[in-house]
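Forum: Protein Structure Q&A
Topic: Joint prediction for protein chains with partners

I've read a bunch of threads here and the consensus seems to be that you should model interacting components together rather than docking separate models afterwards. I'd like to see that in practice. Below is the full input, 828 residues plus whatever partners are listed. Could one of the regulars post the assembled result?
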Amino acid sequence: MKAEIITVGDEILIGQIVDTNAAYIARRLNETGIVVNERTSVGDDAGQITECIGRAFGSSDIVIMTGGLGPTKDDITKKTLAEMFGSRLVNDARVEEHVRNMLALRGIPFNELNRGQSLVPECCTVLFNVHGTAPGMWFERDGRVLVSLPGVPFEMKHLMDDEVLPRLKKRFELRSVVHRTMITEGIAESMLAECIAAWESALPPYLKLAYLPAPNIVRLRLSAYEVEGDAVRGEIEMRFRELYDIIPDNIIGYETATLQETVHRLLTDRGLTLAVAESCTGGSIASKFTAMAGASAYFKLGAVTYSNEAKISVLGVSPDTLAHYGAVSEQTAREMAEGARRIAGTDYAVATTGIAGPSGGTAEKPVGTVWFAVASEEGTVAVMRNSGTDRGQIIERATAYAIELLRDRITGRR
Amino acid sequence: MKAEIITVGDEILIGQIVDTNAAYIARRLNETGIVVNERTSVGDDAGQITECIGRAFGSSDIVIMTGGLGPTKDDITKKTLAEMFGSRLVNDARVEEHVRNMLALRGIPFNELNRGQSLVPECCTVLFNVHGTAPGMWFERDGRVLVSLPGVPFEMKHLMDDEVLPRLKKRFELRSVVHRTMITEGIAESMLAECIAAWESALPPYLKLAYLPAPNIVRLRLSAYEVEGDAVRGEIEMRFRELYDIIPDNIIGYETATLQETVHRLLTDRGLTLAVAESCTGGSIASKFTAMAGASAYFKLGAVTYSNEAKISVLGVSPDTLAHYGAVSEQTAREMAEGARRIAGTDYAVATTGIAGPSGGTAEKPVGTVWFAVASEEGTVAVMRNSGTDRGQIIERATAYAIELLRDRITGRR
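Posted by a regular:
Agreed with the consensus. Here's the joint model:
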């Protein structure tokens, strides 16, 4: 079963927003056994919308659209669909009541624009939007299905999961689409491809391999379309297990696995605790760990000590060290890590101190200079790394490297 | 001048990645005076790629593609383009030398796959990729231009800015595309539309108004396509200035303005300092401020005190308070903010303590319960807000609300 995704809105064509809706819908359709054939974005223009739907119906059984359902004049999707399906707009009493209630809760008066939101094309099935004021709509023509959803991500996701997918499963006979991704690190794409060439050649023809490189990691994805799910999932597991013999040191996990998850598991499984002392990374390391459920079991303290005073008063860094070596130095990084570990009473502490820029760099310590330290029972290690030239990039890379260094210390790699 | 953007890769169609490249290219084309007509994503499939390009050439003068240029078997864009343009692949000596140098720097051997990267269709102009191993390619046919760029965002951006845009400006006679966005907060979309209806009706016909709602904010965008830039920019400024008389309390700024930028400016302009004490937000507030250049002037301390011990030892929260009221309580929030302000010696301190879940909730204090406090010379205020049900959402909303409360205290709104 093939589908096409159409996202509507000038904000997409001018690059004002990143189209995350299309990615969500694509993922959910794949999980449901529906192959996405093409994704298109068009502006708030009746002619373009109509032409694009016509084209999509030529090659796909299912079309999922988002956007253009708001109450203001620039939103024209509903009117365009009504015209396309030759159906007049009628008031839906249940939608109107819901819109009135939602607005009343927020203390907003119901006006003419809101009244427009309860109008729907007579020929469609209304997909009730519990979380918003714009209803979803389900149309059928010549055995094909077109669904129009609001563009607000939260509302779209809810309608997709609760209304669209269950209805598609009932409406069509679906097979399985299977994707499984293994994450490797520390090996370049071309070397990896060479290392696993024999393994790749031996894959059965229905398994499609993709390489997805990103800084420091390469993701390997195996995909199979419209197959018997359970058998293929088993086959993929077996194929990936073979890689543990070929590149044992380069695998960090599956799907969206990250190094902070590896550290999270290591700390949790071993009953170890962590403190973080950050200068240039500014809370980014702490927020990576605390974003994971269960972090409170090991995460005891994060200290964002931007000022020298805070480094002294909170972490106990020596004023002499700061005066003599400067805030961005091996000695300061060491004292920050050791201070955080001592104050929080943790097994491990990681510290960063560097120059995130754009100002503050010198010839000796240019923007991007970052010192890292990890303190533990085995002692303290400190490393310097130049982490880039752009503030955001420096913070991101330094955060990633601090977590890598921590992993290496916990596992004894370093 | 009209353009179409085509992004190639199965990872986009299965929703494994969010297509940020298309948004970047769209934004840069608009800034250069080129109207983006449509955006399409197709899989790594020669037939689909060829068909999509043919269609794009039917309605646009310029086609910008990304993806499918890597060294591995799943990357087929280059071969497909060579066939489409009837051109054989030839070795480019400069590209080969560059690939060899790049790999040598990283200690990676040059292999057969890398050799393939220095092959280019004979008919194209090579766009030299300083930052990566896959060159960009510029094709011309019947007065139309097709550009193929690598999918790695960093490399694509560099080629877009340094090679593609300068060449497009030289190749075509371009007019201006102007977009300007005003950010409003605290007023619902339908009410806003009603408030500014007269203003909207009076807009000249070449200015297109769009409403972009998001949680708590509505963005208003005025757009004009293929116009005289300077005159239109002046007209838009004048129109937006009129809104300051209609909705003076609801405007927070232009373009991507955020509330943390407002607070950043307030603190910087007034020479005030800030400390942050976070429990459930886990460093997220600190990282929002420290992500902004110049934050070190006012940001003195961030403390992520997840454990009770850290709340006591670092912030001086009283053990009795924790025992009697619990970590998630008005009293603890107040003592965290006051402790952070005292220890860091700052003008303001903001604190959060709550239950981010998924576990840890009780009937009395369910997941999502968050206490906020801001301490300053004027005293301490504390507020409770239920911030949602999902861990990520709770952290995000609580972070936003803490910054709002801080803004309100600094400006005297609360």
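The domain at 176-254 of chain B is CATH 3.30.70.2860 (Alpha-Beta Plaits).
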